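User: Hey, my collaborator sent me this sequence without any context and asked if I could get a structure. I don't really work with proteins. Can you help?
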Amino acid sequence: MKIGTLKESSLHCALKFRYSGDGGSVEAPAESFVCDACTSSGELIEVQIGSLRPLKEKAKSLCKKNKLRIIYPIIVRKTIELYNAKGNRLIHRRKSPKRGGPWDLFNALIYAPELPLLKKLTIELAVIDVVEKRIDDGKGSWRRKGISITDRYLEVWHNSIVLKRLKDYRQFLPFKKKESFTVKSLAEKAGINQVIARKTIYVLVKIGLVEHTGKQGRAFVYERT
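Assistant: No problem. I've predicted the 3D structure and written it out in structure-token form, which is a compact way to encode the shape of the chain:
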């Protein structure tokens, strides 16, 4: 399959080729599916930008016979480039004030919280900076005043975080065993907002790393298992 025949961002394409590695292939058929890539050792690669819900059933089916690695980008810094309506003249370039972190995984994982339970599945967080290209064509979201997002490019590769076993997810629990915590205390200790903290706890309960032990006022109390 030729490059450019699929509707995918430059970021998705760059990660797909990066993870296929030497001797690997892209757009690799597997079972009744086509995966983003396959390494020379036979590990299947899926790059997912956004919710992990679309991979919920696909991953379950593929992991019956294959090793699968889901690549989820964590965008630490984003640079926004705004172009004119034709996309051929740069109007301005600025850094987005929003900064991402590993906890962003739970925004996507909450829609498929059982994925970490699949024995042949690895989730790898690609920690990166990106450039987002926008054009002032009047066809985009009203929130952006009609400006459209046309592409994202990989700008800087920082590192990756590999989540292969259930115990790897304990790094998102900055508490000792038998130490009680709430959504609020997790948010404060981890330096994240309570929305992300709530999603994190929900997923970790689903995969058996956290249990509900009671209430503290109106707040639910949890402990590591």
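In plain terms: The two ends are 47 Å apart (CA to CA). You can pass these tokens on to your collaborator as they are.
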